[in-house]
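Lab notebook page, bench 4
Experiment: in silico fold of construct C2
Operator: M.H.
Input chain length: 266 residues
Purpose: comparison with the prior construct
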Amino acid sequence: MKSIYLIILFIVINTAICCGQIAHQKFRYIVDCKQLSLINLKTNLSQYDFSKLFTQTDNSEVYGFIGKNYNRLRIKIITITKDTLNSNIYNVYGKSMVNDNINIFHGYIKISKILKLRVIKHGCENDSLYQGYRGEFSIIGSYYFPENIEQNHTGIFKGSFRSDYFIDKHNHIQYDHIEDCSDGYTNNQFIGQWISNKTKIAKKCNWGDYRVPESGDLDIGAGEFSPNDKYLKFGWQSTRDVMVQSNTNLKKSKQIEEKKWWNKFQ
């Protein structure tokens, strides 16, 4: 009886520690400790290269905001490579855009935890890709993306992230879209802030694939992302037009949403 009590106590304490650490990282919204194992598998899984997970999604479906008015933020990770000296560091080159201001950033993401999902999912369709897969996992860590100070309105993106993947039957890493037909599906969630190089003022700044974490009343969609009417003037009008298939502005809005804006300059 005593040994059983000690086991239960150990589980409760470790769950509290796990959830406490994640809450400290402002991840309570997107990490449910009840769905994750308590064992950090970072050491066991560090031999994999996770870089492709961050460049899978079409940029038109990567949604982000910055500041109290939820201004539309667009983030594009152009290249990401695993560091040759530290297997938990990935070097990142990308671009950001707010309104018409485009800036370059060079930085890194750092993996702190890799946790396995407790619940086995079977996917929305009978896809052979998922048959025999070896489990789903969540990468949890931090990111630091300083923009080029020689450009206009630059700052530093910093915070925490979560990215989900699964290992297929061939032992290959795959972007986790097993439940992509489910309401609220998202991946590659980044939560943090942008700190101005000039004023040192910090602004809340989050983004993610398909949905935005901790987006307040910006996202009023049920099954998928849908911007609130009161924020349309802050860069979200074209998103709304495409979603509702507006006959008046659809062509122009599609061009805006699908534009490869990061190719504007080097």
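Observations: The first strand starts at residue 62 and ends at 66. Helices lie at 2-24, 42-45, 237-244, 250-258.
Next step: discuss at group meeting.
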